[in-house]
UniProtKB/TrEMBL annotation:
Enzyme class: transferase
The protein's name: 3-deoxy-8-phosphooctulonate synthase
Residue intervals of the DAHP synthetase I/KDSA domain: 15-261
Keywords assigned by UniProt, alphabetized: Cytoplasm, Transferase
Compartments where found: Cytoplasm
EC number(s) on file: 2.5.1.55
Pathway membership: Carbohydrate biosynthesis; 3-deoxy-D-manno-octulosonate biosynthesis; 3-deoxy-D-manno-octulosonate from D-ribulose 5-phosphate: step 2/3; Bacterial outer membrane biogenesis; lipopolysaccharide biosynthesis
Keyword Transferase attributed: yes
Name of the gene this protein is made from: kdsA
Record family assignment: Belongs to the KdsA family.
Natural source organism: Sungkyunkwania multivorans
Amino acid sequence: MQLSSIPKLKHIDANNFFLLAGPCAIEGEEMALRIAEKVVAITDKLSIPYVFKGSFKKANRSRIDSFTGIGDEKALKILRKVSETFDVPTVTDIHEVSDADKAAAYVDVLQIPAFLVRQTDLVVAAAKTGKVVNLKKGQFMSPESMQHAVKKVKDSGNELAWITDRGTMFGYQDMIVDFRGIPTMRQFAPVVLDVTHSLQQPNQSSGVTGGRPEMIETISRAGIATGVDGLFMETHFDPANAKSDGANMLDLALLEGLLTRLVAIRKTINSL
C-alpha cells in the first residue's frame, strides 16, 4: 500500500487507516510543534500511521489580504523541525512547478491542491521528485477522471500516488462527499478522505470560507465504513483564531475521542 516507502512512518503493520493531520498553514514554530506533539501522542497510543500536515504557503486565497504564510523557507524549516523533533514524516502542498524541488528537500509527501490537479506540469514536477504525490480530487471532477492524474504520476516514473477526495461542489456554497467514488478511485490508487475540506462552505460573500465542523465525525465514520485507506483532517488548538480555514477545522481537544471511535469502527470493518 506504499506506506513502507515513507520515511519515519510508524505503525504500518497495525492494519489501521493512516492519518494526515495538522494545521491548515504553518503560522509559526511554537504552534506547529504544539499540534504535532499532541497528534503524535494520540496516534502512537492508537497505533495509527501518522503524517504531519502543514502548508508552507497558501496561494489559493479568496482575497488578496488573506494570510498566505510566514515565508517559504521559514515555514519549510519548521516542517523539517517537526519531522526531526517527533520522528514523523510530513506533507505540504505545492502550487507552482518551482515549489516541487524546493518543498521536496524538506518534506516526505507532496500534495497537489484540488484546483490544480489537472495542471500537468505541476503534477509531473512533483512526480519527478520521487516523493509520494497526494492528488486532491478537483471539486469539479468525477471520481473516474482521477485515473488520468494518477497516470501522469506513473508515466513520469513514480508509482507513489494517492488520491484524496475533498468533496464535490454542490451548488455555489456547499460541498458534498459522494461515497460511491471511494471504491471507484481505489481502483487507481490508495484513497484518502479529506474530512475537513469536504465540509467547507466556499464562495461566501465575505471572501472568507465557511464550514460545518460539527459534521466532521459523521463524514469520518462514513469514510472508514466505506473503506478509505487514510483520513486527512486539519486541526488546531484554537480554530477560531487560526489564520486559515478555521471555520472547518477540528478542535485539537476533540481529536483523541474522534480517532478512538474511528479505530473501533475500523477494527469492526476488518473483522467482517
